[in-house]
Amino acid sequence: MADGNIDNAQRNDDNSDDDANTSAFNGRTLELEEIGPDTFKSVDLWQPEGNRGVFGGQVIGQALSAAGKSVDSPYQCNSFHCYFLAAGSNTEMIAYEVRRMRQGRSYCSRLVTAKQGGRVIFMAMASFQVPEPSALQHQYAMPRVPAPESLASREEILARSNRLGRDSMVAEINALPVETRPVPMRSKRGIPVNAIWLRARGDMSALGLSHHQSMLAYASDFALLSTSLKPFEMSRPGSAYTRSMIVSLDHTIWFHAPFRADDWLLYVMESPRTALGRGLAIGRIYSRDGVMVASTAQEGVIRGENSGPDYSVLEFTSAVEPVGLGEPKL
C-alpha cells in the first residue's frame, strides 16, 4: 500500500465523522459517549477469557480516540505514551478525561486519565503534530515474509488444534474487530522474535486518519509483550519454565506515516531483555509496500518459575532478529 492510498482515510480528518464511532467494521470497540467537556465514556469493554481485566489494547484505542476529539485538523497523533495503573473491569464503563496541556503551532499535547469506580486505572500522554516535509528520512527495511493471503488465520490455527477449550477461543477471536495471521518462523527455537499480519475487519475508507490510528493502537497490544516469553518455550513439553503472571505496565506507539488500518499491516516484534520480573518488547509496523508506519514498545510484569538448576541468563545476538522470520512462499 503506497502512502498516497490514504486519501480516503484522510478525507474526513476534521474529526467530524470520527465522532460516529459506530461503523460496522468494529462494532462498538472504540465507540465513546460524550458525558461532559473533553470527557467521554466507553460503551463496550472486552475482557478476554482467562484475563484478570479488560483488554489493554481497547483502553489504549479508546483513550487515543478521546484525545483525538480535542484536536482539530491538520494535527495528527505522532506519539502516545500509556501507563496501566490497575486492571479494568468489564462490569463498569470507563470514563476518559482529556486535559489540553499545550497548544503550539507545530505540536500540541493532551493528557488522558481513565477512571473506573472512582479510581484512576490508566494514564496517557498524546502528542499531535502538524505534518511537515523532511529531507532527513531513513527506516529499517521490512523483512521478507509470506504474503498474508498465503497464511492461516489465528482462528484457523486454533480450530485445527485438538486441545480442549479451543472452540470458545475461536469464537472469541472471530468476534474481534481485528484479524491476525501469524508469520511462521524458520530459525532456531526460542528466539525472542515474532511477527504477524493484522488488519481491521470491514471497510474504514470513510473514516479519518485519527480513527485508523486508534484502531492500530488497539491492535498493537496483540502478541507484543508475549514475545518476551518466547525464549522460555513454556508450551513445549518438558520445558523447565512455567508462567505465573504477564501483565502490561506501559505501552507506547509512535506514528511515522499515514496508513490504512483496514489494509494488511506487518507487525514485527522482538524482545531484547527480560529481567527483574519485567519483560521488554519492541515492535515495527509496516504497510504492504514496505513503508514503516509505526513503532511500538511495551514493558510488563513477567513472572515465572524455573525448575532447572539455576537462573542463568539466556543470551542471543541481535543479528538473529532478521533471520527469525519465514521466507516467502514461491
* CA radius of gyration: 20 Å
Helix content: 10-25%
* Order of adjacent strands in the largest pleated sheet: 1-2-4-5-6-3-9-12-11-10-8-7
Query: Number of helix segments?
Result: 5
Query: How far from one another are the termini?
Result: 21 Å
Counted beta strands? 12
- Give the helices and strands as they follow along the chain: HEEHEEEEHHEEHEEEE
Strand coverage percent = 25-35%
User: What summary fits the major beta sheet?
Assistant: 12 strands, antiparallel
Shape: globular
Summarize model confidence as the mean pLDDT.
83
Ranges where pLDDT stays below 50 over 5 or more residues in a row are: 1-25, 320-324, 326-330
Question: How would you explain this protein's 3D organization?
Answer:
The protein has 330 residues and is mainly beta. 13% of the residues lie in helices and 34% in strands. The chain is built from five helices and twelve strands. It has a twelve-stranded antiparallel beta sheet. α2 (56-68) runs antiparallel to α5 and α3 (154-160) runs antiparallel to α4 (166-174). The longest helix has 13 residues, at 56-68. The protein starts with 6 loop residues before the first helix and ends in a 24-residue tail after the last strand. The model is unreliable at 1-25, 320-324 and 326-330 (pLDDT under 50).
